[in-house]
Design brief:
With 658 residues, the protein is of the alpha/beta class. It contains 27 helices and 17 strands. The strands form 4 sheets. It has a 7-stranded parallel sheet with strand order 3-4-2-5-6-1-7, sandwiched between helices. The protein has a 6-stranded parallel sheet with strand order 8-13-12-9-11-10, sandwiched between helices. Strands 14-17 form a two-stranded antiparallel ribbon. The two termini are 23 Å apart. The structure holds adenosine-5'-diphosphate and zinc ion (ZN). Zinc ion binds next to helix 17.
Amino acid sequence: MTPPIAADASSLPPGALEAVRRHWGYSSLRPLQAEAIAAELAQRDSVVVMPTGGGKSLCYQVPPLVSGRLTVVVSPLIALMNDQVAGLGLVGYPAAALHSHVEPEEAADIRRRAASGELRLLFVAPERLLTEPFLAFLRGLKALAVGGIAIDEAHCISQWGHDLRPEYRRLAELRHRFPGVALHAYTATATPRVREDIAAQLALRDPAVLVGRFDRPNLTYRVVPRVRPTEQIERALRRHEGSAAIVYCISRRDTESVADSLRNLPGSRSIEARAYHAGMTPDQRARVQARFKAERLNVVVATVAFGMGIDRGDVRCVVHAAMPKSIEHYQQETGRAGRDGLAAECVLLTSAADGARWRRLLERSAAESGATPESLRAQADLLAHMQRFASAARCRHAALSEYFGQAYARPADAAPASGCGACDVCLGELAPVADATVLAQKVLSCVARVRGGFGAAHIADVLRGRATRRITQRGHHELSTFGLLRGARREAVLAYIEQLIDLGALERDEGEQGRYPTLRLNAASLEVLRGQRGVSLVEPKPAQGLPAERHGPPNARREDALAGLSAEERALFESLRVLRRQIAEERAVPPFMIFADTTLIDLARARPADRAALVQIRGVGQAKLAAFGQRFIDHIRSAGAPEPPPPVREEAPRSWAL
Ligand code: ADP
Ligand code: ZN
């Protein structure tokens, strides 16, 4: 694949920034947005990879405003399309969506608006884009009317990704159907392999490859062994009382039982949580989703089915009640926390049982769908990476960044020697294992005794003294290391192995095609075995599992922006939220579409007294100013006389973006 070539950001016409200011009220672009916009304007193919919340939509929304042409956006979910169209409506942007829920009359009207050149964005479902009538319609548009085709959630085209969608596979036809039209792929989760696959499937020509930073510095990650799940989930949610949170489970039944047990907590501890999964009726699902978006429900317990269409930016906590089946899923689901750039927490509860459960589910669904052995292997591979992430005791930020092919760079303002300052490992929440070197010697000598060719799971079984068939067949129950760690939990032994690999005291050979990765010793292992080198291992602090009190922000950079507000500002912010909810209800849109929390925080601080001052606030564009700006001004006025000018504050950090 072509090496990454950044389009020249300085080639961006001034009209682009002007449009961003006018419609969205943002005074600057985030990293890579300028390059992505420039590529679209130059009608050059592109692959844009940014984390969730990074600001992908703006990249395909701005070019049509400048070029006056239409961009067709392929999007996988109706809810996602409708939200975008509604949100764009609020900023005065001409956009529409065509999908199976649009009445024929309305669809005819939308086609007319596209043909007359009024529309700038047209969202379509992938299966509709390639139908004859739609193709004919697009061909019938005036020459040059279509500026490009943007493919949102483009990883859905790749079997190496985590969300292959058959209807996306057909997008491979786009190139020869529209040879002259530039294609732009957008995704949040792409390992280099997926990225290359996207470019290959879509037959992109010399694409601008723009890859953002995957690290989300405002998220604090914790990985905790699952002991008493309800209690552990409750504690995590308590730390974010009154804020939005999502709890992810593996199965539909789990979502119901977790939601039930949270609601059934005794007395005032009861948490109003609702399940959400694909087995519910569309009506039931829509209700939960609508209440969540409208801020009338804060805790949703869901399978992966929930979230893709959710733009609520103020999710403060994402709990995984069990391990997800890939790091891609983990990144995407945790990515729903803190999209507004303010601090948020992600808690992963794991048990070795989760991996086995996923393997069964994968095999079953592969058998049902007739998946190729190759794709089953790809899934198993993704799962193995997730397991390693969960059992290693490495900085979570670093591990995630590196998984996505990026060296981790500590935030410049992180406290010295505190690592990332935002994960359980770096925050010192893990306890040292007693006699770690002896323990390591037991593990390493077991690897030596089996004479290579075995993976972590097998070694753990031998050490724990489990006489499985695999073990007895090979005579491994007769090894001197058999049962050396009898009584240890399986996940604990797997965690020791991961840590030894991380420390360089053990090596893992990735299996050739279709073979399992195996462990082998290296020079450092021999030093440990001979007692020439000590190692330290860690494990989660037992008993307390999760600290009950709210974790203080580790450094100013991640400080909760609300914590920086005075009591008065805080009260004004809360009352602005009420006003926002009112306006949202009147307009039948979710509150976050009216203004983001970050905008309300800025309003509470700056107390703009007139329109000129209001439009200076980030997130206030012309259309919103005209539609409900006065109501915010009146509200702020009536909320009391402005204070003396506040001291100059640093702008709230948004560097999480990229
Ligand atoms: P993604 O699609 O990558 O998950 P979005 O496009 O939904 O992310 O953007 C996330 C949030 O960031 C949105 O609220 C969006 O309005 C905001 N945003 C995007 N670009 C900018 C910018 N240049 N300045 C300020 N906010 C921005
Ligand atoms: Zn860390």
